[in-house]
Amino acid sequence: MKEAKPGGGPCRFGVDIPLIDLRSQHRALQPKIFSALRQVFDSSVFVVGPNVRAFEEEMARFCEVEHAVGVGSGTDALTLSLAALGIKPGDEVLVPSFTYAATAAAVCHLGARPVFVDSAAGGFNLDPADAERHITPRTRAMIPVHLYGEAAPMGEILRLAEAHNLWVVEDVAQAAGGRWDGKRLGSLGHTGCFSFYPTKNLAGCGDGGMVTTNDGEVATRVRLLRQQADASVLGGRKYTHPQVGYNSRLDELQAAILRTKLPHLDSWNRFRQKHARQYSSRLKESGVGVPRLSRDGSHVYCLFTLRCSQRDGLRRHLRERGIGTEIYYPLPLHLQGAYRDPGCPEGSLPVSEMLSKQTLSIPVYPELTREQVDRVAEAILEFVHQGSEVGMEEAVGR
Ligand SMILES: Cc1ncc(COP(=O)(O)O)c(C=O)c1O
Questions:
Q1: Which residues contact 35 (CB under 8 A, 6 or more apart)?
Q2: Mean pLDDT for the chain?
Q3: N or C: which end of the chain has fewer CB within 10 A?
Q4: What one-character DSSP code corresponds to residue 278?
Q5: What count of other Cβ atoms lies within 10 Å of the Cβ of residue 273?
Q6: Of the residues 174, 201, 207, which should be mutated to test ligand 1's pocket, given the most ligand atoms within 8 Å of the CB?
Q7: What is the residue with the minimal CA distance to atom 12 of ligand 1?
């Protein structure tokens, strides 16, 4: 059995379709990217220079917020946000269990405790009712994750936060360009935390992240923290440090690349939405669970994630046909060695536990052709039909 090659290549059923392929995006943008990189080299300013400042302004405008601060990664965007909001040891922060480890790691880096919340039945995102059940007098914040590109239920989350006086830190790592109720994700909470890791909707060529906020004081604190809390950031004396900071700066090369890409983000997301519609219409009678369709541009499909009780068999079937897939995430955080909590044993977050056994992400990157999407859908339907021919009970999780 062969692995799908990352860049695509011939297989028995035609050319491979990887899960993600940035090469086609970069082929189209190469002259612009190379010229931007040359300018950075010519200036030889590599850290927090004119490109970072310009990109921060452009992202703030794009996200419809007053401030954006470039940092070293999405994980750092979360950590520095929480630090800037004053989260400290002993505090509790509500975090979905069904997310990437970084969401909870950021809480732990500050000595605070992530309190895991289940996903809502029928979806992937955090369940606000379950979040409310986990609130205690120590709860200070919650981190709704816009998982796979779909907006978390922000109406209920903001109401809950207001009622219990909690900070809301949006994890927008997988949803750059998405919206909720017409507003850009990253503009709804106290801060929005973006990742520019290469698999994201706005993909850098390395690590990078950003904090967005309408709170000028929080933005200033993040600016201070990202640079070892050096007083010169606030106009004070260089090499004097009023507090312990971090080294977490976005570099000029990444900012220069990301500036060439940002103007294309909405159009790339529309292609993702088009592929999602095509998959949904091809797979609607199949019994395989497909994600909610976005009619209002709110879901930006960083990932197109199926639910299938025969997930591992489907994955093998697609791999044999040269189609790349990934499981995001095979184990929810409350069952991970690093994050185990006696108060949250196996069985306590049933939706997250079930999702980790059933989800499978298939290719949805913008440059896919209609034919490629069709080929992936055909291969899934072939698996489903094979299953029903051998009389497999609940072949695909009906
Ligand atoms: C939901 C989520 N949060 C946070 C992060 C962390 O971002 P980074 O890898 O840039 O640190 C990621 C990245 O994969 C993510 O998917």
A1: none
A2: 93
A3: N
A4: H
A5: 21
A6: 174
A7: 173
Q: Are 177 and 301 in contact (CB under 8 A)?
A: no
Whether 195 is in the pocket of ligand 1, judged by its Cβ within 6 Å, is yes
Instruction: Give the predicted TM-score (pTM) of the model.
Output: 0.94
Calpha distance 78→85 (Å, rounded): 11
Say which residues have a Cβ less than 8 Å from residue 120's Cβ, sequence separation at least 6.
126, 127, 128, 129, 130, 153, 351
Domains of the chain with CATH codes: 10-20+264-389 (3.90.1150.10), 27-263 (3.40.640.10)
Shortest-distance atom of ligand 1 to CA 199? 14
183-228, pLDDT tens digit by residue? Answer: 999 999 999 999 999 999 999 999 999 999 999 999 999 999 999 9
Which residue shows structure tokens 């850290």? 47
Report the nearest atom of ligand 1 relative to the CA of 76: 11
Residue 54's CB: how many other CB atoms inside 10 A? Answer: 13
Cα of 274 from ligand 1 centre, angstroms: 25
Helix (H, G, I), strand (E, B) or coil at 221: helix
- Answer yes or no: is pLDDT of 390 > 60: no
Q: Which two tokens stand for residue 41?
A: 């080299």
Pocket flag, ligand 1, residue 209 (CB < 6 Å): yes
Ligand 1: atom nearest CA of 195 is: 10
What H or E segment, with its residue span, contains residue 64?
Answer: none
User: Is the shortest distance between the CB of 358 and ligand 1 below 6 Å?
Assistant: no
Q: Is 274 exposed, middle or buried (0-12, 13-18, 19+ CB in 10 A)?
A: middle
